[in-house]
């Protein structure tokens, strides 16, 4: 952009209000869920492809899991491995989201595993009905 009064070139401030930042939506999961991508009849291959191709993943490693192996065992995951971001848990938790969902469905307490506001939301919206 040129200022009409001078020959100086003006640059646009990237922090100005006219600069639009578009957030990226990623599928966040644990490595235990990534492993289910390899299990027949759990996921449709077109759903897996849509997740890893269009959105990408952030996959948190779990004790006893090997997400790099899961990726290498799948041609589809290998093709989109550039869009699968692996994260090491900084604090090891022996409880996975899968275990929390199962406990809620079985009407077991998850009081000290998730925040009270999350428990209230899950109950209010019946997020995990009994099986």
Automatic annotation (TrEMBL):
Top-level class of the enzyme under EC nomenclature: transferase
Highest taxon above the source species: Eukaryota
EC number in record: 2.7.7.1, 2.7.7.18
GO MF annotations in UniProt: ATP binding; nicotinamide-nucleotide adenylyltransferase activity; nicotinate-nucleotide adenylyltransferase activity
Record-level GO BP terms: pyridine nucleotide biosynthetic process
Pathway: Cofactor biosynthesis; NAD(+) biosynthesis; deamido-NAD(+) from nicotinate D-ribonucleotide: step 1/1; Cofactor biosynthesis; NAD(+) biosynthesis; NAD(+) from nicotinamide D-ribonucleotide: step 1/1
One Pfam family cited in the UniProt record for this chain: CTP_transf_like
Cellular component, GO annotation: mitochondrial matrix
Catalysed reactions listed for this entry: nicotinate beta-D-ribonucleotide + ATP + H(+) = deamido-NAD(+) + diphosphate; beta-nicotinamide D-ribonucleotide + ATP + H(+) = diphosphate + NAD(+)
Keywords linked to the UniProt accession: ATP-binding, Mitochondrion, NAD, Nucleotide-binding, Nucleotidyltransferase, Pyridine nucleotide biosynthesis, Transferase
Compartment annotation: Mitochondrion
Cofactors that this protein relies on: Mg(2+)
Domain Cytidyltransferase-like: 26-102
Protein family per UniProt: Belongs to the eukaryotic NMN adenylyltransferase family.
Subunit structure: Homotetramer.
Function: Catalyzes the formation of NAD(+) from nicotinamide mononucleotide (NMN) and ATP. Can also use the deamidated form; nicotinic acid mononucleotide (NaMN) as substrate with the same efficiency. Can use triazofurin monophosphate (TrMP) as substrate. Can also use GTP and ITP as nucleotide donors. Also catalyzes the reverse reaction, i.e. the pyrophosphorolytic cleavage of NAD(+). For the pyrophosphorolytic activity, can use NAD(+), NADH, NaAD, nicotinic acid adenine dinucleotide phosphate (NHD), nicotinamide guanine dinucleotide (NGD) as substrates.
Name of the protein in question: Nicotinamide/nicotinic acid mononucleotide adenylyltransferase 3
Naturally occurring in which organism (per UniProt): Ornithorhynchus anatinus
